[in-house]
Design the sequence.
């Protein structure tokens, strides 16, 4: 999401980072809070009374409650859950705790297990400080590029520049690693909460269809949907466990089902 990326970059530039290569826990919380406030100003965020928001927050709180006490003490992130009215099929996490879902994504989720699968994935990005790591990697790459361009300018060698730039920009394992880690830890969290991890696999199957499969994995910073589904289903099989049936969405505070609640509250369903 370009708007959020810009906000984070501008916000980071304004922070006096203790470590210029890695934002601290407090930096991440402050930056995420400020970015979330800007998202709420720029996007159509649904009100607290909306049934979709209530459901998302109920499930989000359930997962937050499962985080170990020591982790909460060491990494006191402030989790929040909001829904943006948009046809975009997306969800994203900001450093420090804010998580946003788009109605375009919620419209396509069939049960609570799928919602929890995405929540667990996004929460892992926050819990494991993936944004801070990505920021640090990016800063180091930028310094590397500056050094490369300085050497190239001195040597006036376009071929050296092309090869060196490929080395810098072609290093994508960190993002792949973070996405795979978010899948793995999110899987464990939803199982701990008593949900069926097949829901996570089903989400990625759906996303693969929506994106029409995307490009080859080596051209992408994220593992492609097909490979993610295979990895999740392999874990399910290897566990040897029988997981509970996937849970249908529960009635909202309005007393109507999730899908009917969307229609009642102005959503599509």
Sequence:
């Amino acid at each position: 999401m370009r708007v959020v990326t810009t906000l984070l970059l501008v916000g980071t530039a304004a922070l006096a980072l203790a470590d210029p290569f890695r934002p601290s826990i407090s930096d991440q919380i402050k930056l995420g809070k400020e970015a979330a406030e800007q998202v709420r100003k720029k996007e159509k965020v649904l009100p607290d009374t909306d049934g979709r928001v209530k459901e998302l927050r109920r499930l989000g709180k359930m997962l937050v409650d499962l985080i170990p006490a020591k982790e909460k003490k060491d990494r006191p992130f402030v989790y929040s859950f909001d829904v943006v009215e948009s046809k975009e099929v997306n969800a994203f996490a900001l450093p420090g705790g804010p998580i946003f879902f788009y109605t375009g994504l919620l419209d396509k989720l069939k049960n609570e297990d799928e919602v929890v699968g995405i929540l667990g994935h996004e929460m892992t990005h926050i819990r494991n400080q993936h944004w801070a790591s990505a920021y640090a990697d990016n800063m180091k790459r930028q310094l590397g590029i500056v050094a490369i361009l300085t050497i190239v300018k001195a040597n006036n060698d376009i071929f050296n520049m092309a090869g060196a730039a490929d080395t810098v920009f072609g290093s994508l394992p960190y993002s792949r690693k973070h996405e795979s880690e978010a899948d793995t830890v999110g899987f464990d969290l939803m199982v701990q909460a008593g949900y069926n991890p097949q829901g996570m696999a089903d989400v990625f199957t759906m996303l693969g269809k929506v994106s029409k499969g995307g490009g080859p994995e080596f051209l992408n910073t994220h593992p492609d949907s097909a490979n993610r589904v295979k990895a999740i289903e392999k874990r399910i099989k290897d566990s040897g466990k029988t997981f509970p049936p996937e849970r249908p969405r529960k009635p909202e505070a309005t007393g109507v089902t999730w899908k009917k609640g969307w229609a009642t509250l102005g959503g599509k369903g």
